[in-house]
């Protein structure tokens, strides 16, 4: 056995594992001079596939080091800007270059996992339109969080697990179903990122057909009711798949 030196505790294997053999995993890393090297990242079982990560902090690549240096230079230049002074006054601080880099890495990893997941959902290739709709539905949570932050007193219980279950249902939702969930035909609130900022707080004017009027309270009620209806539509589609 070539991997007997890499042991995983027996209780960390899956119960159905018949031959618990550990294999060491390596990841590409860089030293202080930017030279490539490989370091131990964790262990995996060759039978049940369980992964046990080790305590490991990845070194920054030369490209990432340059990114952090640019961010720090930008912070120094903008430290005396009106925006930064206002944020400090209300008790908020901008994220550090390291936090910004971590967010970028998480986003890239999330997008990669989404691409891998799309390949598993069916033999038919996914069109750019379908992929775009799925991505926008996944970002509806951010839209409602932003609305709650803006208006302050919204009561929207958005179910992330329901959205994930809807997007991963087999057979996968059609383009028509995705479009109807993202922007239903009966919807009065536009959630498209290019339009919601322009029409935030505006609703249809019942007295003038084709006109809009500003009504904050009715707009907030529409946000809450449409969020519930969207989630109900996703549940119905999931149930229709049996």
Give me some keywords for this one.
242 residues, mainly alpha, three-stranded antiparallel β-sheet, 8 helices, 12% strand, flat, disordered N terminus
Number of domains: 3
> What's the gyration radius in Å?
24 Å
How much is the average pLDDT? 76
Task: Please give the alpha-carbon distance between the first and last residues.
Answer: 45 Å
**Low-pLDDT residue intervals, each spanning 5 or more residues:** 1-6
Which shape, going by the Cα principal axes? flat
Proportion in β-strands: 5-15%
Helical residue percent band = 40-55%
Largest sheet: 3 strands, antiparallel
SSE run: EEEHHHHHHHEEH
Oligomer: single chain
Question: With helices defined by DSSP (H or I, 4 residues minimum), what is the helix count?
Answer: 8
Number of strands: 5
Class from helix and strand fractions: mainly alpha
Strand order in the largest sheet = 1-2-3
Give an overview in words.
- This protein is mainly alpha-helical and 242 residues long.
- The protein has eight helices and five strands.
- The protein has three domains: 1-59, no CATH class; 63-120, no CATH class; 126-242, no CATH class.
- Helices cover 47% and strands 12% of the residues.
- The model is unreliable at 1-6 (pLDDT under 50).
Short structural summary:
By secondary structure, the chain is mostly helical. The protein is 47% helix and 12% strand. The relative contact order is 0.07.
């Amino acid at each position: 056995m070539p991997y007997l030196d890499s042991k995983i505790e027996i209780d960390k294997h899956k119960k159905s594992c018949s031959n618990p053999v550990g294999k060491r995993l390596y990841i590409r890393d860089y030293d202080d001079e930017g030279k490539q090297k490989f370091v131990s990242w964790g262990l995996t079982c060759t039978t049940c596939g369980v992964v046990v990560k080790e305590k490991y902090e990845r070194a920054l690549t030369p490209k990432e080091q340059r990114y952090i240096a640019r961010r720090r230079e930008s912070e120094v230049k903008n430290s005396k800007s009106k925006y930064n002074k206002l944020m400090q006054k209300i008790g908020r601080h901008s994220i550090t270059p390291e936090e910004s880099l971590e967010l970028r890495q998480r986003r890239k990893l999330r997008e990669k996992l989404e691409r891998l997941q799309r390949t598993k959902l069916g033999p038919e290739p996914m069109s750019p339109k379908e992929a775009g709709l799925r991505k926008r539905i996944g970002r509806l949570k951010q839209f409602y969080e932003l609305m709650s932050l803006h208006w302050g007193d919204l009561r929207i219980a958005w179910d992330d697990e329901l959205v994930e279950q809807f997007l991963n249902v087999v057979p996968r939702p059609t383009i028509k179903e995705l479009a109807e969930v993202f922007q239903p035909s009966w919807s009065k609130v536009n959630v498209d990122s290019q339009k919601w900022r322009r029409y935030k707080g505006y609703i249809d004017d019942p007295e003038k057909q084709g006109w809009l009027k500003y009504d904050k309270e009715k707009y907030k009620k529409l946000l809450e009711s449409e969020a519930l209806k969207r989630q109900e539509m996703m549940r119905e589609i999931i149930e229709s798949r049996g």
